[in-house]
């Protein structure tokens, strides 16, 4: 256990969760814009929209318990989830690729990773995930889907070539309508098993053995 490094991350996470308490007000601004046209990621450029602490702890445990080395994350935001992933890969000597569309968010995330002392473990790709992960040819042991929901299916299909028999795909916001359609579509292939978590908010996908 890398106690000092883990404590640094805990400290930064505590600050970020405190700041994320203001998300409610920031989201109202975004939601108001959505009244006259469909939402855009930029409408939420100031909001964390992060996973819960419980989910973060769970991701960390998944990484450690399965000795996961290669993590890919879709949807960095300000880096809360990435820092939990970093807690996991610190223990497995793994690494993370994370991707964020909004440059200002990615830059804030990078600052947070530097302050937590884990930037060397994280490759932050700024831009549309369908571009930043195009032609990706590395292994994926854990894919964490937490970006814009209409991209779950195309991104999954694009990255499925990089899965191995033990790959785990963690789907956040699985109870929203587009992720539900995504899950139905991939269930039809008969290749995957599904495990619901947090009353359906998240789903773990594994490859059938
Ligand atoms: C729910 S938030 C991610 C929260 C983060 N995983 C956490 O728990 O701290 C979704 C993020 O995905 C980003 N995003 C949306 N569309 C994207 C795209 N096409 N490529 C990369 N990132 C995208 C948004 O800007 C937003 O910051």
Entry summary:
The chain has helices spanning 3-20, 23-33, 53-65, 80-92, 103-116, 129-132, 152-159, 177-187; strands spanning 70-74, 95-100, 122-126, 140-145, 163-172, 192-197, 202-207. It is α/β, with parallel strands linked by helices and 209 residues long.
List keywords for this structure.
about 45% helix, SAM_O-MeTrfase, binds S-adenosylmethionine, about 210 residues, Rossmann fold, seven-stranded mixed beta sheet, 8 helices, transferase
Structure in words:
This protein is α/β, with parallel strands linked by helices and 209 residues long. It has one domain: Vaccinia Virus protein VP39 (Rossmann fold), CATH 3.40.50.150. 44% of the residues lie in helices and 21% in strands. It contains eight helices and seven strands; from the N terminus they run H-H-H-E-H-E-H-E-H-E-H-E-H-E-E. It has helices spanning 3-20, 23-33, 53-65, 80-92, 103-116, 129-132, 152-159, 177-187, and strands at 70-74, 95-100, 122-126, 140-145, 163-172, 192-197, 202-207. The protein has a seven-stranded mixed β-sheet with strand order 3-2-1-4-5-7-6, sandwiched between helices. Residues 41, 48-51, 75, 77, 80-81, 99-102, 105, 128-129, 146-148, 151 line the site of S-adenosylmethionine. InterPro entries: SAM-dependent_MTases_sf, SAM_O-MeTrfase. This is Methyltransferase. Keywords: Methyltransferase, S-adenosyl-L-methionine, Transferase. GO terms for molecular function: O-methyltransferase activity.
Topology of helices and strands:
Blueprint: H1 3-20, H2 23-33, H3 53-65, E1 70-74, H4 80-92, E2 95-100, H5 103-116, E3 122-126, H6 129-132, E4 140-145, H7 152-159, E5 163-172, H8 177-187, E6 192-197, E7 202-207
Parallel strand pairs: 1-2, 1-4, 2-3, 4-5
Antiparallel strand pairs: 5-7, 6-7
Helix pairs in contact: 1-4, 1-5, 3-4
The structure holds S-adenosylmethionine.
